[in-house]
């Protein structure tokens, strides 16, 4: 499980790569669970939470950029 602080320190590209890896891992774990070969059922929950953390941090960055864009024209005036 990745800590939120570690995710916040990553660049956008690193976050996107981490997200893709987590989604692939989730797919693999779901497939194992369907075949009843899952060693750790709690791993699904951990991966889903990591994916949610990545999405949250990505959205926070988007909102921060939008806020900066709105403030930039006001600062020039």
Kindly describe this structure.
With 77 residues, the protein is mainly α. The protein has one domain (4-76): Helix Hairpins. It is built from three helices and no strands. The longest helix is centred in the C-terminal third of the chain and has 35 residues, at 42-76. The protein starts with a helix and ends with a helix. The mean pLDDT is 89.
Head-to-tail CA distance between termini: 46 Å
At CATH's second level, what is the architecture? Answer: Orthogonal Bundle
Class from secondary-structure proportions: mainly alpha
What string, H for helix and E for strand, traces the elements in order? HHH
The overall pLDDT, averaged over residues, is 89
Which consecutive residue ranges, at least 5 long each, have pLDDT under 50? none
Sheet-strand content, in percent, reads: under 5%
CATH classification class: Mainly Alpha
Bulk shape: elongated
Q: Which topology does CATH recognise?
A: Helix Hairpins
Query: Radius of gyration over alpha carbons?
Result: 17 Å
